[in-house]
Structure formats: structure tokens, C-alpha cells
Amino acid sequence: MATLADFDLLREGCQNIRNLPWAKPLNRRAMNLYFNVKRAQEELERLNVEVRRLFTFLIDEHANFWHAIGGTLITDPVLARELQARWLYRDRINEKIAYRLFEMSQLAGFLGVLLYGKRIGCTHHQSLEVPLPSWVHTITRKDRGIDISNDVLPSHGIVGVESDEEADRLVVYFENLA
């Protein structure tokens, strides 16, 4: 880290500012610490807003997949199957995100709310015909201390991949990317 003594302009000016209180290393560290704490408080306020936005996105994404799969099930079953596979994959990811949001909501400094909101410009809203995502029930089971470690991952350990053959092909694909 550079100090004021490293800058010739400051050292050779009309007034030697190295002797001023704010130029002393201990005082500068104290100022940096003060502003870091102040910035952390701003981040906490922002977090209280962003948690609700992210939770709303998770629910909206679930509803969007639900409607898209339902709309293509009869007309294009292949597309519906692909959407369902992607939905299952996203649902497992969203489960982990939602659990982290739940954990954050339990922290002492959290003043936000973990509720579904309404996005501006969104024409659809969470309707009653769309069931809750599976992770809502999983989060409450985790909170009650029930072990769900075997509930999520398949035997080969890759979420969203249904067979060992697919898992092997995926691993080879990623290895060839490098």
C-alpha cells in the first residue's frame, strides 16, 4: 500500500502536509475503518431490498416455467420435456439460493422481509393455480433439522443429469472446453 511519504509532490510542496493529523498512518487506518463500517451499513440496507427482489424472481421464474410447460405439453411435447428438464435443474439451484435467503433472514441485522413482491411491468402475477416450488417445503424441513442431503443429488452427483451416461458425456464436454 502506498503512503503519503511516497509522493514527491506532497513532500516538496509549500506546506509539508505529512505532519497534519489526517496524514498519520494510524489516523488514516482509523478513517478507512470508519468509512468501511459506514459502507457496510449501506450494504445492509441494500441487502434488505435485494433479498425480497431475488425471492420474487425465484417465485416468478417458477411460475413462468409452470405456465410454459403447461402451454407446450399438448402442442410440442419435446419442448415441454426440455423445459421440464431445465425447470428441475433451476429448481434445485433455486432451492439452495432460497435456503441462503432464509438463513440471511434469520440474522440479527436483517430488517427486510422474505415475502413475494410484484415486479413493475410484469403482466402476470403469482396465481393460485401454480403450486408452490418444491424448495419451499425443503427449506422448512431443513429448518426443523430434518436431513435432506440424499433428497437432492442423484447418485452421480450432477444435478439436472438423469443418467450416468449423460454425466460422463457432460464431464467429457467440459474437459474438452479447456
UniProtKB/TrEMBL annotation:
This is Uncharacterized protein. It comes from Obba rivulosa. The lineage of its organism: Eukaryota, Fungi, Dikarya, Basidiomycota, Agaricomycotina.
